[in-house]
Write a structure and sequence with these properties.
Number of domains: 3
Structural class: mainly beta
Distance between the termini: 36 Å
Number of helices: 8
Shape: globular
Largest sheet: 8 strands, mixed
Number of strands: 44
């Protein structure tokens, strides 16, 4: 047992050996897959808890397949176990799937080839890539509270997916279950409502609002800083919104309705190009069937519930911003951003950089996006005090042992110590290129204490020979002022950068694809070591209230043959740019970059190195 001033933690370790062997013979490939639960005892007792293994779990054998479909994976027998609380008091737990030791001659299969399903008390988690639940030793299979005199029953299926191609012949996965049990933690709603620093408004029977200029409602989840806006008194789920603008896009080119809009697509896009596809294990943290009130109104009072949209991710409506206190509240981040509320069929309410609300035309306006989600009511707080410097941390998202973890398993928005002196902070954008980690500078580049401005060049198409591209692939890499030689060696060479043209009211997908179906990549590309972020990409939002750079920064995407888009210091996209703007380099770090320290927050960014 391990003790400190705040908690008591007990660790139970049960071993699951999961072996995957691929054999090639006579140009015909087949896979042998076996799962075996082992342990010194079939029942492990710690305090009032028993972790009980099913003695009948004898493994699974599949013939004549390399990878299998989700339906086949879900139909596997799986391995079963139980978690029993024999006591009268509820306790919190987290179940991890850790790497187990493999033979010296074996090669471990990459998590990206594996999918799993965890059935808990009859409910499936769904076919999920193993990479979505973290990387060893922080793969969280399940977490929560188990009440006294209660049993949770589980069945774990793990399989090679047929959705990812790769050479994994003869490779092995061996894992073990680890269960950490601690004293019961409070839910997010309970903590928020109990904090005297938070002004609580209960006048609305459907939403209990947090108000005030700076309440203790900061939450760190999946690499991003969020604010808790309200609690649903019917189920104690908690509505969050990002503190900053994560990107900026056109809302739509046809209608102010949320359903079917570019905005709805971007927020709920599960690919690497959208918001939801880059969140950590959303099914574990977020209400996937959330309802969003997108009713048209010319008033800031509570709208009727005539237009309710079911989506995992949305944005705040005008009423929710109003109930927080409008321009005097914590939701005024000094930037332009869209709300969910139509004013008319072609006009939408937005918040301006001074915190005021106004109705703007859809056409020609590309404002910031602040995604909103609803945390499940059972999500617990395990650390933090709700301030900006020490935000609340959520159970299952509070990784503490990341040394040796590959950077390409981490999440969009997390901070990295990278670069020299005044340019020494970067953020993860995505993992757009398989195995690599795309990053961008947290702020625009500085030179001798002032922000550096530059002309884009004579051509709207970026290349390593135009003005800005020549700087980024020349002086930025070689001068020693911006990057060390060791850091330059961490960057992957010859990356594809997409240069699709996007009119100011068109879909963000056109910056990368030929059309909105995403069936074909644009042929407008360039190859370079260092580039810029494109329109609609994650982290193309402003992250500070009227940032001191005062002039915004260049993006990669042309609006037409004469104009390249710029993110302004107010968080909106500038469609009539000035001659010079700031620079936020984007680059891809190699697949063998590992974390040596830090937790990915602003206060404690990742330290990294190039592994041999």
């Amino acid at each position: 047992m391990e003790k400190d001033n705040n908690k008591k933690k007990k660790i139970i370790t049960i071993v699951i050996s999961i072996i995957i062997i691929l054999v090639l013979a006579l140009a015909i490939s087949y896979a042998y897959f076996s799962t075996q639960l082992t342990g010194s005892d079939q029942i492990v007792k710690v305090g009032t808890l028993d972790l009980v293994l099913d003695e009948t779990s004898e493994g699974i054998t599949l013939d004549n397949v390399v990878g299998i479909s989700d339906s086949e994976g879900l139909s596997l027998d799986g391995s079963t176990f139980e978690l029993r609380n024999n006591g009268n008091k509820a306790v919190d737990y987290t179940i991890y799937l850790d790497d187990n030791t493999i033979g010296e001659a074996d090669t471990r299969i990459d998590d990206k080839y594996l999918k799993y399903n965890l059935n808990k008390n009859g409910a499936d988690s769904g076919a999920t890539l193993l990479t979505r639940i973290g990387a060893n030793p922080n793969r969280v299979l399940d977490s929560g509270t188990i009440e006294g005199k209660t049993t949770n029953t589980y069945k774990l299926n793990l399989w090679i997916t047929d959705e990812v191609d790769g050479n994994y012949s003869g490779q092995v996965f061996s894992g073990k279950l680890r269960v950490e049990v601690s004293q019961e933690r409070p839910t997010v709603a309970k903590v928020l409502l109990a904090d005297n620093a938070n002004n609580i408004d209960t006048t609305d029977p459907d939403q209990t609002f947090i108000t005030g200029t700076n309440p203790n409602n900061y939450i760190w989840y999946s690499g991003k800083l969020w604010r808790a806006v309200s609690i649903d008194p019917n189920d104690n789920s908690v509505k969050l919104v990002t503190q900053h603008n994560i990107s900026a896009i056109s809302y739509d080119d046809n209608s102010s309705a949320f359903e079917g809009s570019h905005m709805e697509e971007w927020l709920n896009d599960t690919t690497v190009d959208g918001f939801l596809g880059n969140l950590r294990n959303p099914k574990e943290f977020i209400k996937m069937d959330s309802k969003w009130n997108a009713t048209e109104t010319t008033s800031s009072s509570k709208p009727e519930s005539t237009t309710m949209i079911e989506d995992t991710v949305g944005i705040l409506n005008l009423y929710e911003y109003t109930m927080s206190g409008k321009s005097t509240s914590y939701l005024n981040n000094g930037l332009y951003w869209w709300t969910l509320t139509p004013y008319s069929s072609s006009n939408l309410w937005n918040v301006s950089n001074n915190g005021n609300t106004r109705a703007n035309s859809l056409f020609g306006n590309l404002f910031g996006v602040r995604p909103s989600v609803n945390l499940k009511p059972e999500i617990k707080i395990v650390d933090g005090n709700g301030t900006e410097e020490n935000p609340y941390r959520l159970m299952g998202d509070n990784d503490t042992n990341l040394s040796g973890t590959k950077l390409n398993t981490r999440y969009s928005g997390e901070y990295i110590s990278f670069g020299n002196d005044e340019n020494n902070l970067y953020r993860i954008v995505s993992h757009e290129t398989e195995g690599l980690t795309k990053i961008t500078s947290a702020d625009t580049l500085k030179e001798n204490g002032t922000f550096k401005f530059i002309t884009f060049g004579d051509d709207v198409y970026y290349s390593n020979t135009n003005m800005i591209g020549s700087f980024l692939n020349g002086e930025y890499l070689t001068s020693g002022y911006y990057l060390t030689e060791e850091q330059v060696n961490m960057i992957e060479d010859n990356i594809t950068w997409y240069l699709g043209t996007v009119a100011s009211d068109k879909n963000y997908k056109l910056a990368k694809y030929t059309d909105e179906t995403m069936s074909n990549l644009t042929s407008n590309i360039t190859r370079a070591k260092v580039g810029l972020l494109r329109l609609g990409e994650l982290m193309t939002g402003q992250f500070d209230k009227n940032s001191a750079n005062g002039n915004g920064y260049w993006l990669l995407s042309p609006r037409n043959m004469t104009i390249v888009y710029v993110v302004s210091d107010a968080g909106n996209i500038n469609t009539i740019p000035a001659p010079t703007y700031g620079i936020k380099p984007s680059l891809n770090l190699k697949s063998n970059i590992i974390i040596t320290g830090g937790d990915g927050t602003l206060q404690n960014p990742f330290e990294i190195e190039l592994a041999s």
